[in-house]
Structures are given as structure tokens and as C-alpha cells.
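Input C-alpha cells:
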């Protein structure tokens, strides 16, 4: 049962559970908003927390334990009181600073824009900001998975008339928006924001919605933060990402046959060819495999395989599926450099249906290594 709090308890609880303030006696406040994370409540982490050891400015880390676009940021259902408490805390804190910068990725990018709009002197840096979560928008772009994910949030947010960023708002002239060219929603939102942010609305090549991981992988994220903190011009992302993409390019195929061992272990072979093996030398590299539940969007790490800087490599992969709940899954296979997914090189190659009954685990393997599988209905591709 959901817990409801009094106004006073709600305000103190939200600030305690949703924020972390780090003081460096600076006149510049950096507000860092966390992204959507299914495990946020379990891990209690903040995005970009490593900045507290490096940055010499004051930092306010902000997270949303409910993944509610900061409408229920303090863990409990509170009729919007937690949102208003957080908004009041952030705007009041910002008043004593000469410079304020807001940054976030995805849901955090939206928050950077939304809260940054309420702080007239704030500069906003939003990475893949998902600024439209209305269900009619997801119907329009045929993203039916996200309709279910955001239905409950929408009922509360739009009933209250909150979380709107007006197109005539001055925040757009104070913002830098970065979107990924390989993500459908990013491309649509980038296009629709051209009229309000024509010069600072940038579509980056070779990356998807998780472009923050690409920036980290090619060493641009640190430069990005340094530019924000120093209030300098941001780096030339386009050319740097194109160069990085060239050297990290590879070919990876799932080779058959794919079969089940004792009903709960998926077995197959992976062929990997590195187009520039010299790039991978002296780096800790691995192939990471995630099973993503298409109904809940919950991700399960099911395998990580270390590899070396050889041009051709072959792996026998066995994925234990016994910990997966019932549902339809896509398995994302990607290259990881020093624990960071490298650019937009993750791809869904295996589609499975898990149905547990009486401790048994019947699994249907659908298709592999085929872009057509992504567009087919699961009922038509079972084998």
C-alpha cells in the first residue's frame, strides 16, 4: 500500500532522500539530475557522483527514486507535494549563487530543463532530454512499450498540469541540447525543438539515447564537465565521436545453432572481428549481454566475457536464464570498454519468451542476427 505523508514530513523526507549537497565554497552551483533507473531505489545512487571528488564547484545531486520525471521524487505518493518541495528547495538554494548550471541525461535532461527554467540565471546542458512523456506521443511514434511504463505517471502529472516547458520559455536560449542520431525518439524530439533552440540543439552521429555512455567511452564526458564548470565552449562532439566510432568499429555475429541446455541455459557462438585491433590494446574490454524484459523494461545482466585485441575471435556463450521472470525478452549484446558501453554498438540479436511453470523453464527462441526480427510480432516469429 502506498504511504502518504504530511506536508512537513513530505518536504523534509524529499530533501533528505532525493538530494545530496557537496560544498566547495564556490560561487558556482552545479545541479546534477539523475536519469531513469529501474534499480535507483535499490542502489540509492546518483548519476555522475564521481564529480564530488573532482569538481571544485558546489554540487547538488538530485535523484527521483520513483522514476516519475521528478513528480514523486521522494519515494512516496504525495499528491505532488514532494515535487513542489524539491522545486522550492532548488530555487531557493540557487538564489545565493552567482552562476548556476543544470545537467542531466534522458529523464535527468528533462529535469535540467524543467528546473533550469525556474532559475533565470541557470545554463542548462541536457543530454537526450526526453521532454514528452504523454501517452498520445508514444502512440503517435508507435512506441507501445513506453505507454505502459508512463501511464500511471501521466495520470498524475497531466491531471495536475505540471511538468510543462513552454515553447516560448527563455530556458531554450540558455540551453545546450544533445541528441543521438541512432535513436528514434531522440531524432523526433530534436526535429521538434529546432524552432525553439535552433543553434544549441545538436544531433550527434553514431550514438543512440545512451549517448552519455558514448561520451564517457571516448573521453569526452570529462571535457564536457570541465567546459560546464569553467563556463567555456563545449567540445566538438561531432568530429570526436566520428573518429572514435571509426576506431571502435567491429563486426559481431551470433552463429548457430542456438539451443537450450536442460531447459534454462541458452547456448550459442559469437564471432567477433575488430576492424582496428590496435585501438583495443591496453584496454579492459568485454562483451556484455543483457536480457531486457520488453514489458517492464527491467534489465538483467546475464553474461560478461573478457576479450583481447585480436582481429578475429570466437566465443562459446552459455546464458543462465533461471533468474528471469516470465516475459518476452530481447538480449542486448554490446562491447564494453573499461566498464562503459562503447558508442551505439549494442544490438538485439536474440529474442526469447520465458514462461515458468512448476519450476520448469520453457523458453522459445525467436530469431537471431536479423533486423527483421525487431519489427515482427512475437506471435509470428516463434520457432
Amino acid at each position: 500500500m502506498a504511504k502518504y505523508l504530511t506536508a512537513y514530513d513530505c518536504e523534509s523526507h524529499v530533501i533528505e532522500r532525493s538530494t545530496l549537497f557537496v560544498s566547495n565554497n564556490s560561487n558556482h552551483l552545479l545541479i546534477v539530475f539523475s536519469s531513469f533507473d529501474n534499480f535507483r531505489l535499490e542502489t540509492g545512487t546518483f548519476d555522475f557522483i564521481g564529480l564530488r571528488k573532482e569538481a571544485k564547484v558546489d554540487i547538488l545531486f538530485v535523484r527521483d527514486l520513483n522514476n516519475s520525471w521528478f513528480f514523486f521524487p521522494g519515494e512516496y505518493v504525495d499528491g505532488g507535494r514532494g515535487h513542489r518541495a524539491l522545486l522550492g528547495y532548488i530555487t531557493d538554494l540557487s538564489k545565493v549563487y552567482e552562476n548556476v548550471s543544470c545537467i542531466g541525461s534522458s529523464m535527468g535532461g528533462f529535469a535540467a530543463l524543467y528546473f533550469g527554467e525556474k532559475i533565470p540565471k541557470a545554463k542548462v546542458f541536457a543530454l537526450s532530454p526526453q521532454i514528452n512523456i504523454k501517452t498520445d506521443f508514444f502512440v503517435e511514434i508507435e512506441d507501445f512499450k513506453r505507454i505502459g511504463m508512463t501511464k500511471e505517471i501521466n495520470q498524475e502529472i497531466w491531471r495536475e498540469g505540471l511538468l510543462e516547458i513552454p515553447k516560448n520559455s527563455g530556458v531554450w536560449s540558455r540551453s545546450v541540447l544533445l541528441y543521438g542520431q541512432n535513436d528514434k525518439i531522440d531524432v523526433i524530439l530534436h526535429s521538434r525543438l529546432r524552432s525553439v533552440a535552433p543553434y544549441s540543439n545538436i544531433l550527434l552521429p553514431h550514438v543512440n539515447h545512451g549517448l552519455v555512455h558514448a561520451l564517457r567511452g571516448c573521453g569526452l564526458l570529462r571535457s564536457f564537465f570541465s567546459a560546464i564548470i569553467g563556463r567555456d565552449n563545449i567540445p566538438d562532439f561531432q568530429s570526436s565521436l566520428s573518429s572514435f566510432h571509426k576506431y571502435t568499429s567491429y563486426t559481431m555475429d551470433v552463429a548457430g545453432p542456438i539451443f537450450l541446455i536442460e531447459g534454462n541455459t541458452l547456448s550459442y557462438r559469437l564471432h567477433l572481428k575488430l576492424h582496428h585491433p590496435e585501438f583495443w590494446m591496453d584496454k579492459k574490454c568485454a562483451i556484455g549481454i543483457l536480457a531486457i524484459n520488453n514489458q517492464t523494461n527491467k534489465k538483467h545482466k546475464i553474461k560478461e566475457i573478457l576479450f583481447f585485441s585480436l582481429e578475429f575471435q570466437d566465443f562459446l556463450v552459455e546464458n543462465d536464464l533461471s533468474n528471469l521472470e516470465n516475459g518476452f525478452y530481447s538480449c542486448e549484446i554490446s562491447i564494453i570498454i573499461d566498464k562503459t558501453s562503447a558508442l551505439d554498438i549494442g544490438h538485439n540479436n536474440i529474442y526469447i519468451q520465458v514462461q515458468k511453470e512448476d519450476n520448469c523453464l520453457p523458453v522459445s527462441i525467436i530469431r537471431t542476427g536479423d533486423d527483421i526480427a525487431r519489427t515482427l510480432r512475437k506471435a509470428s516469429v516463434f520457432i
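Residues 255 and 308 are 20 Å apart (CA to CA). The chain has a mean pLDDT of 76.
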